[in-house]
Amino acid sequence: MKIFKNRGDIYISKSKKMSNQAKILYALLAVIVVFTAVFTAYLHKNYSSAADFFARGEVTTTEKEENIKEILPETEGKTNFLVMETDENKEKIHYIFLVQADRDNRAYKTAALSPDMSVGDSTVQKIYTASGGAGLKAKLTEYLGFEIDYYADFENSGFVEVVNKLGSYVYISNEKIDYSDNKEDDKYTLKIKEGEQTVSGSETSNLLRYFTEKTKNYSAENELILKALPELLNEKNYENADSLFKLFMKNCTTDITVRDFENGKNGVMVFCTLSTDLTLYSAATEFDDTNKLTDTSVKNIKGYFSK
Asked: What is the Cβ-side half-sphere exposure of residue 48, based on CA atoms within 13 angstroms?
């Protein structure tokens, strides 16, 4: 049957039999209709508009970071910590350092000290032997002229366990280190290659001890601490903050309480969330021939850690 009489006439077959091509076209049309219906229902359920759907994939990294910062709690204040590791008999300090969490400026600050450092007419080691971590914290607060809020006194195995639980991090060494200290009751071995490598608890502990006891390179100790803190205290570990705090309490002697931890949780959230966007400072530590801090070092440390 012919419809119209001009160019473009349409012919309709008299046969009721459908060709293969027509079957294919009808099948494709059915698929398109079904897909359109499903897609429309999905959009209606999950997005307020088509613009919202297409815009979601175009949020830049900067916008995401700004959104994260907007939802973080406002925090303020500075908290100073004294951290040390000893042998398993709690007799000898392997290393000791100060850390400040500066919530005003969102920064970590460190100052590595020496166990042999003179404090008045005594030394850090002698004060610790006589009165433990709490007594040492009080003496250093008085000597340095600023408040040390808390102390954490680890044995070697406890420090290693806590760092291992936090994870590993990338450390870049300027030298190859192959060193063994064969003291009978307090030995350790350190093998570090030159360049970039992944380290965890035992390597961290042994590096800090090596810089303190063997090379007395307190600048390298500061750099290691500032490398480890942001990488270990990260957003993933914040999700397990409660269990990690229990592990911390189990493995050290400290005056940090559960209430202190709960009160400071907003600060922990901010530091963990912004772990790659924190400012890092280290106070240079230098000693004279009598193991007293030089005047310049005292000034630097006070400048960083005073509140």
From this structure: 3
